[in-house]
Amino acid sequence: MVEPEVGDFRTAGPPRWLSSRAGGLVLALHVQPGARRTAVVGIHGDRLKIAIATRPADGRANAALLEFLALRLGVARSALDLLSGASSREKRVAVRAPLTCAEIAEALRSE
User: Fold this and answer.
1) What is the phi/psi pair of residue 73, to 5°?
2) Whole-prediction pTM value?
3) Among 7, 25, 37, 42, which one is least packed by beta carbons within 10 Å?
């Protein structure tokens, strides 16, 4: 079976890396710090893979990740919270903004 394109859930439902919870949506991410460039890479298991150019020292890569997500989603940085994975590549980020699953999936399409 061919897996649908990231964010193409007209028939497949929301992407596996996106879930809802009280007060917003949650992104399940696999983050690769210290990459050559910051970008959405694609799918890694059941998570969205994002490469971050910043090295993982003193929380700078986490801050860069949240800034990148805020920019891509068109929301204020304060609308995003790192729920888990501060010192791990596997992270969960809450989005507290009036965005639909389709809008988030489209904004985070791989480049």
Assistant:
1) -85, -15
2) 0.84
3) 37
